[in-house]
Amino acid sequence: MRRVLVVSLVVAASALGVAGGYLWQQRGIPAPQLQRATMVTNDAQPLQDFQLRDQDNQAFTRERFNGRWSLVFFGYTHCPDVCPLTLAEAKGFYDHLSGTPYQADTQVVFVSVDPKRDTLEVLKRYVGYFDPAFIGVTGTRAQLDLLARPLGIYYAYQGDGNDYAVDHSAVMVLIGPQAKLRAVFSPPHTAGMLASDYLAIRRAAS
């Protein structure tokens, strides 16, 4: 099986303001009870500027995170297992939000770290298979790194020719409506756990 790396976010999270229950208590806010997610405080710095393109060839920049909550996963369409399984769970997560006040301002974003093979047309078909509301984005490696590196996301190409693999982090990250990292979801991902933790985070933030 091709490797998918779960990379530690300790350094990146520390720079962005990861907090435990102590900081929540200091603010007088009860820490939400979470299963897989690690919370990040409002002290996190906004993401830096970046320039990507979405599956409709529209600009995808930091501003696309403003005013919305974004569950973001980095991968590639040729991924044999982890990426499709994760996006299937993300679809279940999104369906869980139906009937709640939270679906309207929630977006699921799949960031392809394989721009050589993942053209915008390929991305459009791929994310549309899981849910037409999902957003697929990509860009050059330099552009991708402006988003990936501050979030602690790792990826590396393995092999030659066109049949190469891409090792990548398997975490999902939650970007809040001020374009700040708000939580990190560790694998394994299931729709129920994603929805449960996300709803707890949203309720705590309201």
What is the C-level CATH assignment? Alpha Beta
> Tally of extended strands?
10
C-alpha Rg, in Å? 16 Å
Average residue-wise pLDDT:
87
CATH superfamily: Glutaredoxin
For the largest beta-sheet, the strand count, sense and barrel status come to:
8 strands, mixed
Strand order of the largest sheet: 1-10-9-4-5-6-2-3
CATH A-level architecture? 3-Layer(aba) Sandwich
Please tell me about this protein's structure:
With 206 residues, the chain is of the alpha+beta class. It has a single domain, classed as Glutaredoxin (3-Layer(aba) Sandwich). 30% of the residues lie in helices and 22% in strands. It is built from 6 helices and 10 strands. The chain has helices at residues 10-16, 21-26, 82-96, 120-130, 141-148, 191-205, and strands spanning 37-39, 51-54, 59-61, 69-75, 106-112, 135-138, 155-158, 165-168, 172-175, 181-185. Strands 1-10-9-4-5-6-2-3 form an 8-stranded mixed β-sheet. Strands 7-8 form a two-stranded antiparallel ribbon. Strand 2 (51-54) and strand 3 form a beta hairpin. It starts with 9 loop residues before the first helix and ends with a helix.
Keywords:
alpha+beta, two-stranded antiparallel sheet, 8-stranded mixed beta sheet, globular, 206 residues, Glutaredoxin, disordered N terminus
Describe the secondary-structure layout.
Elements: H1 10-16, H2 21-26, E1 37-39, E2 51-54, E3 59-61, E4 69-75, H3 82-96, E5 106-112, H4 120-130, E6 135-138, H5 141-148, E7 155-158, E8 165-168, E9 172-175, E10 181-185, H6 191-205
Helix pairs in contact: 3-6
Briefly summarize what is shown.
This protein is of the alpha+beta class.
